[in-house]
Formate--tetrahydrofolate ligase
Amino acid sequence: MKTDIEIAQKAELKLIVEIAKYADIDLGDVELHGSYKAKINLKAFKHFKKKQDGKLILVTAMTPTPQGEGKTTITIGLAQALQQMGERSFVCIREPSLGPVMGMKGGAAGGGYSQVLPMEDINLHLTSDIHMITAAHNLLTAMLYNHIYQGNELGIDESRIVWRRVMDMNDRSLRGMFDITASSEVMAIMCLSKDLNDMKERLGRIIVAHDKKGKPIRSSDLKAQGAMALLMFDALKPTLVQTLEGGPAFVHGGPFGNIAHGCNSIVATRMALKAADYVVTEAGFATDLGAEKFFDIKCRVAGLKPSAAVLVVTKQAIAVNGYENVAKHVENLKFFGIPVVIAINKKTDDSESDLKEIGVRCSEFGVPAIVADIWAKGGKGGKDLAKAIIEACKQKSNFKPLYDLKLSLKEKIETIATKLYGADGVNWTEKALVDLELFENIGLREVPVCVAKTQYSLSDDSKVTGRPRNFKIIIRELKASAGAGFVVAFAGNIMTMPGLPKHPAAENMDITEDGKITGLF
């Protein structure tokens, strides 16, 4: 059996200008990065001005296992299947972070015959967007501490600095000073910005500290936003690549789904909607994390109205979490008022009888349950799923966010916890209550919330599987992401700087003298 990287390396790639032509992108807006990837200038929106938006499809999942349930693979495979059926489709996914790639994942560009290419480039630096974001974030850190060193004209209270450093790697030894770039507010800002001016404004609103009277000190007070935007100018342009079957794909933005808002950029999604009839995108982990943030943060900011959602389930995840877990995630998606299709992601060792049983059990939840054999067969193995999605998109979408922005921050978090997690309520630490009062007093009451919690449970305890009942989640502290436009609530013991596993994927990676990369999967 061929590995993902062996399949990717034997694929015949089209020149990226051909992909751009297929997507009706004016070649004058294509900025080449070699033969097989390109940045698309934001001026492309002018050429799409009169085009209607296509249908937006979100791919999410049941509570995952550490091995992952193939959500990205299903996203790409579904887009390939739609293309095989004669539909104009576009993939929009996040850029992999080096931390997980070198840690547990070993790669995050799909798998088997449902990948985005060039796979090695996508997993390793791509067009350096994450490095640009890291540089901009750390520039602000440097300017903050330099201001204090040079006399502290703003009267910054050094005990109330809230801005840390970031790097794009999992390194538990740096948890006291660093976060991972994927959790940076600068990453969130890039993904939620509509254009350069919007990004500059958001960068200026970042709160880095408070003065001795409690007043927020912002990036604009340090006059940092212009230089930060300069470093990120190219990062804001979406990166065009291709699926293994030659369809267009944007890989742009990479916020984590558990410690950040978990969606690719607004710019990429909006551009893809102008270029295709169906745009298939993903959100990190399960419905309680990435999907909730996709609906309540990204769709609200961008004015997007999804047409349908795909819920990925697998035999391995059902073995750990059971069918009650699947039922809860279906229920969660229905809270948002959109049609749902279950995709049963077939793994190589799944028997037909196992898949049939899963299909029968999942169909009891009142939504179509379709086997997708897209790892082994690519788009061909996803045609039944594509047909079900086309039918779902014909239904009326009654999309609505989960909560009203006029609710207090406390009420929003409690709504997410009780409705989506199934909790009885929320326990608040003393620090969290102080944070709530502070943020509402500085004008952050009517913003969305981004709950940072474990992906391995509907609760805030990673060891609790299935559909937990009779529990409360603990909110230990909150963080203001004033530039991104939301407040982050930290649940349980979630960390913003992950560590590597005992045997990281990096141990198996290498490159030969002729430049052939091995070990990515």
Notes: The two ends are 13 Å apart (CA to CA). The chain has a mean pLDDT of 96. The first helix runs from residue 4 to 10. The CA atoms of residues 273 and 331 lie 27 Å apart.
